Amino acid sequence: MDLGVRALDAFTTSRCGQRLGLFAGSGVGKSTLLSMLARGAECDVAVISLVGERGREVREFIEDDLGPEGLARSVLVIATSDSPPLMRREAALSAMTIAEYFRDQGKSVLLLMDSVTRFCMALREIGLSAGEPPATRGYPPSVFAELPRLLERAGPGYPDQGMITALFTVLVEGDDQNEPVADAVRGILDGHIILDRKIGEQGRYPAIDVLRSLSRAVPGCNSSEENALTQRARSAMATYQRMADMIRLGAYKSGTDREVDEAIALMPRLNQFLFQGRNERSTRAEAFEQLAQIMQTIPQTTPLNAA
């Protein structure tokens, strides 16, 4: 499935009917990335649920981020942060029901939900008011029992039906990727996309941390050549990240390590590849073609133990 974002199409390739999690702190670019997906993803209908969002941001998302192009094929279900917890819970459940309606008509549906964390906060308020005992970080046990009932409803329908490809955002508290809600959602979904605040501070948007993001459908979606290509690119980025401090301090001398030299040569072009404007759309084929051109500038290295 073409998502319209180069970094996602190349490194976290998704298939129709897959469920992904978008993990990020506040102000890292979740809403902008969601609007890019709503406008550029290959689908018939986009169902967008904004649960517990600020009213000002809702209007900005509709008018500026989504725009007429995104609204033309979207259904929005919104419950702002001042709504009662029952309304915030129902906003998520209603959006899932609407997505199932279009799926039963044979359509390819993209479900975008922002955010599962605020859905869980609404469940926490409901559970505590009903007398449930608080457990992990104040969340009662019913919250973690309700999560799979919501998330598992997305996915492929029967053979004569369409599919729901879902992307659920998780607002991680304090940028802690191991907090209870994030940990529970990660174990249910078919992959995760990490937005890193440090990458955003460097001016590269969408601020996707490719090395920490994962799609479990990649081996079945891509050819062996495409998987080898992304593996080489990941290896180069991991090498550069490992040596970044020494490179900035000038402690690394060119020619000491061939892999590090290649990573230094590739990183500017890889960063340019991962950067994408909010109104720019890319296809999966274009993403792999551009990535192949970048990686061909450096010949593939031969392992030292190949002899």
Automatic annotation (TrEMBL):
Pfam families: ATP-synt_ab, T3SS_ATPase_C. Keywords: ATP-binding, Cytoplasm, Nucleotide-binding, Protein transport, Translocase, Transport. The keyword Transcription regulation does not apply. Residues 16-200 form the AAA+ ATPase domain. It catalyses: ATP + H2O + cellular proteinSide 1 = ADP + phosphate + cellular proteinSide 2. It comes from Gluconobacter kondonii. It comes from the Bacteria. It is found in: Cytoplasm. This is AAA+ ATPase domain-containing protein. InterPro entries: AAA+_ATPase (IPR003593), ATPase_a/bsu_AS (IPR020003), ATPase_alpha/beta_chains (IPR050053), ATPase_F1/V1/A1_a/bsu_nucl-bd (IPR000194), ATPase_T3SS_FliI/YscN (IPR005714), P-loop_NTPase (IPR027417), T3SS_ATPase_C (IPR040627). The keyword Cytoplasm applies. Its main location: cytoplasm. SMART domains: AAA. Signal peptide: none annotated.
